[in-house]
Amino acid sequence: MNNANRVLDAVVDELVDALIAALGPGGVLSGDALHSDYTHDETLTAEPVLPLAVVLPTSTVQVSNVMKIADEFEIPVVLRGSGTGLSGGAKPVENGVVMAFEKMASIVEVDEINRTAVVEPGVTLDQLNDAIAPKGLVYPVFPGESTATIGGNIGTNAGGMRAITYGVTRHHVLGLEVVLADGRVIRTGGKIVKSSSGYDITQLMIGSEGTLGVVTQATLKLQPIRPFVSTLLAPFSSLDEAASAVQHVLCGGVTPLMLEYLDAITMSGITSIAGIDLGVSDNIRARAVAYLIVALESSHEDRLEDDTETVATQLSEDGALEVYVLPRPAGTQLIQAREKAFFAAKAAGADDLVDTVVPRSEIFDYMTAVSTLADTQGAFVAGCGHVGDGNVHLSVFQPDPEKRGELLRAIFETAMSIGGAISGEHGIGTEKQKYFLELEHPVKLDLMRKIKSVFDPKCILGPERLVDPPT
Ligand SMILES: Cc1cc2nc3c(=O)[nH]c(=O)nc-3n(C[C@H](O)[C@H](O)[C@H](O)COP(=O)(O)OP(=O)(O)OC[C@H]3O[C@@H](n4cnc5c(N)ncnc54)[C@H](O)[C@@H]3O)c2cc1C
């Protein structure tokens, strides 16, 4: 061991000692105690990275103390919820610490009158919804992975299938408690539905991917549960017909809870993995190139029946080969299978996943353009997406990293040229950063870097992702 390594080891020992003094021995994992789960998120392209240590704070005070230590040692800190992210946002850095929130997972308060919940960042979507369902309430942001945490959802501005009706995470966070990179604590917003009182720091934090501050508490807006739900499945033999059906449904007077698109390959993948038979005949399956899933919800059973009939008629008029109104268990199974489409793509050997967003009127033309781009790089692209929001999820099959990189660049550039963005909900993280830095407007990047340096001048929080280039 040379001198430099000895000095480094001594500094790491000193750091771990300081962290243990702040959190107690159970609050710091290092060496053999580091579980491999902490070395990655669910991103297909990112190599696992072993951090120096993982810290598990139990309170805001502990988070603040860790950030003061990180500030003093100038050690990077990467924040981690459940690690279900798909952009490398929670991927550790080698010479840094991971802060995870499994010990900060309390629901502090549910206020039925204000319809709000105050939660710690490690609360998962499942935990929150299980706790509030008996009160007739729901936190309506449903990204496909309900083991994800509120902290992670805020980090990525998570969306999901219900965004068409309810919006995304940023529409449901009313206030935050945030620990800054130097350990200071601020509170933003609260149980108030509006405020015109200066720059909106709550909104700035949402989608900042753990690079501006540590969310230690969130005040969330809840909704009443609408108990009646129906699910329609409509196969189409052409993309054009599916496209006009989407416009028809969106403008037809009934706002769907979900409006999802799946190409025939993705549909066959998710139903066979989930083992569901939806009663689609072989003949229709052979002719279908695209499927739409429309979910509707209502507080009144008879209104739901009317809405279901209206939407079924719209789908038929636009050329659906058949319209299936699924019985509730089959509808639920189909939605759950769609939520897990990522795992079907992974099992099929997808090399990357993109979640570009375009204006929803452009989505099918955009997908046709993407197919042509894929052909030029000898790649195969399978797709599904939250079509009601213009959010396309593409599984990209091209093992050659150079060709795949060219393809992704072209896919993003095409989306941006029609008013879209690189990511609709997964974030930029480490894995889409090179495209973001290349394609985003330089003045916007400059402003974002200045914001980062105001919040975190030493670049302690989440380095080498989003606007901070890799060293
Ligand atoms: C099968 C599957 C389906 C999915 N479907 C969807 C979908 O439909 N829509 C969607 O939006 N996403 C989807 N995702 C992606 C993922 O679930 C979301 O990105 C989710 O928000 C990540 O939450 P997490 O707790 O796992 O966070 P992580 O992956 O651990 O972290 C995500 C980001 O948040 C930051 N972060 C974590 N905690 C905090 C904190 N306390 N303060 C500040 N920043 C923090 C991290 O640093 C990181 O940048 C899916 C993932 C899978 C595996």
Please outline the helices and strands.
Elements lengths: L2 H21 L4 E3 L22 E3 L4 H14 L3 E4 L16 E4 L6 E5 L4 E4 L5 H8 L4 E2 L11 H7 L6 H4 L6 E7 L5 E5 L11 H5 L8 E8 L1 E2 L3 E9 L2 H13 L6 E6 H11 L7 H6 L2 E9 L2 H17 L6 E3 L1 H12 L1 H7 L4 E3 L8 H14 L3 E7 L4 E7 L3 H17 L15 H7 L2 H14 L16
Parallel strand pairs: 2-4, 3-4
Antiparallel strand pairs: 1-2, 5-6, 6-10, 7-11, 8-9, 8-10, 12-14, 12-15, 13-14, 13-17, 16-18, 17-18
Bound molecules: flavin-adenine dinucleotide.
The site of flavin-adenine dinucleotide has 40 residues, from strand 3, helix 4, strand 10 and helix 12.
How large, in whole angstroms, is the Cα Rg?
23 Å
Number of extended strands: 18
Global shape: globular
Ligand inventory reads:
flavin-adenine dinucleotide
Strand order of the largest sheet: 15-12-14-13-17-18-16
| Mean pLDDT across every amino acid position | 96
Helix content: 25-40%
| CATH topology (fold) name of the largest domain | Uridine Diphospho-n-acetylenolpyruvylglucosamine Reductase, domain 3
CATH architecture of the largest domain: 2-Layer Sandwich
Using the coordinates above, name the CATH class of the largest domain. Alpha Beta
SSE-based structural type: alpha+beta
- N- to C-terminal distance: 25 Å
Based on the model shown, name its key terms.
471 residues; alpha+beta; Uridine Diphospho-n-acetylenolpyruvylglucosamine Reductase, domain 2; Uridine Diphospho-n-acetylenolpyruvylglucosamine Reductase, domain 3; Alpha-Beta Plaits; 4 domains; seven-stranded antiparallel β-sheet; five-stranded antiparallel β-sheet; 16 helices; 18 strands; 38% helix; globular; binds flavin-adenine dinucleotide
